[in-house]
Amino acid sequence: MIELEGVPELIDPVMVAAFEGWNDAGDAASTAVAHLEREWKGEVFAALDAEDYYDFQVNRPTVWLDAGVRKITWPTTRLSVVRVGGDKPRDLVLVRGIEPSMRWRSFCNELLGFAHELGVELVVILGALLGDTPHTRPVPISGTTSDADLAQRMDLEETKYEGPTGIVGVLQEACTHAGVPAVSLWAAVPHYVSQPPNPKATLALLNRLEDLIDVRIPLGELPEDARAWQVGVDQLAAEDTEVAEYVQTLEEARDTAELPEASGEAIAREFERYLRRRDGGGPPDPGERTRPPWPPKPSEEAAGDRTSEEAAGDRPSEEASDDGDSSED
């Protein structure tokens, strides 16, 4: 039994999770959850025992100095809670860690134990994969679920994939078997510029998450970072004729494949997001978002090595929605 002493009763809680490693090309997904923690000042209230799930020769601990005293930070998965204020306040349970090295079923069961104790109503797992997508176009975001009713209700794809998967796919299936509604959101990262960070992909994930759970997420400097990232990649591509030609080929393929109705849906979604932010009256009042009042209780793998074929188990392979950002031409 998991006991969470001091944690208040949560309001319509949603669990949002991301894991570094195979599921996190360009660190886009883990950076998205880290952004939510930073913007809403999340306090860590629980951490999984690193001894149970991690091979320290694969994910090594780090040593650091605190006022001259040497301390060790162990690779693990941590949970925090933030309260989103406004007219309809709700709580987000944020899960950020590293894909475990072992005991995946126990790992998922432990996270589901927290979800059950906290009354979580929906689990959203973020991921990022490498794909044949040009950096000059909106970042493709695909949403998938194993629940046919949930897919219809939330305009998602019902996954039909069979093959290798990562912790994102395993956790989603564990949620399904436990009767907890679960969704995976995937960002496609250009495989020719896979090194982290990728703020454009992070921004696209947050925009799609905002639409999915109907909250207004403060973006901070992310839009400007995304624009700067694209300008930098533009400059690098312009210096190499072969890369520039390849990008142009991807652009033509992408533009040809896009359906008019899909583009219309993306425009409508962006307009709805604009109205939501406009009605909010500009930047959020810092007082609107506060963390729950309890004291807090007491990364490693190289990302970007996951291909779109390997990740297909956790997202639809047919088509993806375009949730880009203000960095688009």
Give an overview of the whole structure.
The chain has 329 residues and is α/β, with parallel strands linked by helices. The chain is built from ten helices and eleven strands. The chain has helices at residues 28-39, 50-53, 104-118, 148-153, 167-177, 199-213, 222-238, 241-257, 260-279, 308-311; strands spanning 14-20, 43-47, 62-66, 69-73, 78-84, 90-98, 122-131, 140-145, 157-158, 182-190, 321-322. The strands form two sheets. Strands 1, 2, 5, 6, 7, 8, 9, 10 and 11 form a nine-stranded mixed sheet that branches. A two-stranded antiparallel sheet has the order 3-4. α4 links the parallel β8 (140-145) and β9 (157-158). The protein is globular, with a radius of gyration of 20 Å. The N and C termini lie far apart (52 Å). Mean pLDDT is 82; it is low at 281-310, 315-321 and 325-329.
Could you give a short description of this structure?
This protein is α/β, with parallel strands linked by helices. The chain has ten helices and eleven strands. The strands form two sheets. Strands 1, 2, 5, 6, 7, 8, 9, 10 and 11 form a nine-stranded mixed sheet that branches. A two-stranded antiparallel sheet has the order 3-4.
Task: Give me the strand/helix succession.
Answer: EHEHEEEEHEEHEHEHHHHHE
Bulk shape: globular
The span between the termini is: 52 Å
Described by strand count, sense and barrel closure, the largest sheet is:
9 strands, mixed
Mean pLDDT: 82
Q: Give a count of the beta strands, DSSP E runs of length 2 or more.
A: 11
Question: How much of the residues is beta strand, in percent?
Answer: 15-25%
Count of alpha and pi helical runs: 10
Helicity, as a percent range: 25-40%
Oligomer: single chain
- Mind telling me the C-alpha Rg? 20 Å
